[in-house]
Amino acid sequence: MRSVALKDRVPLGPYGPIGVVVDPMTWRAAPYLLVTGAFGLGWFVVLGFAVPVSLTLAVVWVGVPLTMATVLMWRGGAMVERRLMAAALGIRIDDPYLPRPDRGLGAHLRWLLADSATWQDLGYLLMLLPLGLVESAVSLVVWLTAALLLIQPLLYGLYAFMGVYSDLTIDDWRGACVAALFGVVAVVLGAYLVRGMAWLHGMLATVLLGGSQEERLRASRARGIDAAEAERRRIERDLHDGAQQRLLSVAVDLGRAQSKFDTDPEEARDLIAQAHAGTKAAIAELRNLARGIHPAILSDRGLDAALSGLAARAPIRVDVSVELDDRPPAAVESIAYFTVAETLTNMAKHSGATEASVTVLRDHRGVVVDVWDNGIGGALVCPGGGLSGLADRAATIDGVLVLHSPIGGPTLVRAELPCEW
């Protein structure tokens, strides 16, 4: 599921035979793979006619709007495919196009034709024909074979009752039951084939429909800069509306107390006590603000202690496992901490989970943070949302965020954070 700020991976789900068969993702992908051949053939016929005609007529004025319409048509087809990826394969691929210009035919032509995502869309739609035909043919053979084997006991019983026989059935109960067992095996193999083809299809779709890696990183860093600027404005606003106003009130109270020392000592003491309370409130606000920027426990004791503190405040049991031989860079620790904090907050609000786990480990690429819960799933990365903000944070150090959250759960949020960038 890729967006401009989210690196997508194709969720593989469970690996055991029963898990693969009962996983809803398998049966969402199966009908899609059955019809991809038809989609590919349809797009090949349409584009095989529209593209040459529009390019031929481009030498005269009527070909310009026709070319624009053709490009918009295949862009629209690619957008539909991205939505199908989310529904059938659980992969979110946001539209990676450049911003649309406000006006001007020439500007719109450059917008359409100079964007590399436009031509990657065309390549994907043309690739659908050979890829889709293979997927559809394999799926059709596997599922027809499995269905024919599974219904052998039923067919044998029906034909025995009617007193007729068919070449499609086996002529004794033992053979029919054995065929049904082979049918069960065929279903399991078919489920594995579906998951394998879905993985391959999803990876190709992510590469072609998601825009170039350079553009994704550039956009992600731009979004990260915007997120940092928004955070700076939030801190300024919190300081102005909170601690600054309290400290100003403290200064006023102290000034009034100073003027009352000689004439009204009792009121002066009350004003000093009021200033003292205001000072403590301002310190508390500054402490909370600093914790939101970078918690002190993270700097002093590292990720293990900081994440254990987050888990202790969660409304459900959260298991924490931190396996780090040495402390990663401060930026990595901070992003890992806020990734877990935001994910646990979302879990408490929306998931309905009863248990969760946080795992942090080091691999050859850097630090990997996994946050898992057994909630209802269905989480999405929406522009301006919390997960999108986490992806923006990770992108500032060339990290990626991976979300696997099928309907019905469970949900896994993984942050892969390099220690060198």
TrEMBL record:
Record-listed E.C. numbers: 2.7.13.3
Domain of life, per lineage: Bacteria
Domain Putative sensor, residue spans: 32-209
Positions of transmembrane segments: 32-51, 57-74, 137-161, 173-194
One GO MF term: ATP binding
Pfam families for this protein: HisKA_3 (PF07730), Sensor (PF13796)
Any one GO cellular component localisation term in the record: membrane
Segments forming domain Signal transduction histidine kinase subgroup 3 dimerisation and phosphoacceptor: 231-296
Catalytic activity: ATP + protein L-histidine = ADP + protein N-phospho-L-histidine
Gene3D superfamilies: 1.20.5.1930, Histidine kinase-like ATPase, C-terminal domain (3.30.565.10)
PANTHER family: NITRATE/NITRITE SENSOR PROTEIN NARX-RELATED, NITRATE_NITRITE SENSOR PROTEIN NARQ
UniProt name for this protein: histidine kinase
Species of origin: Nonomuraea solani
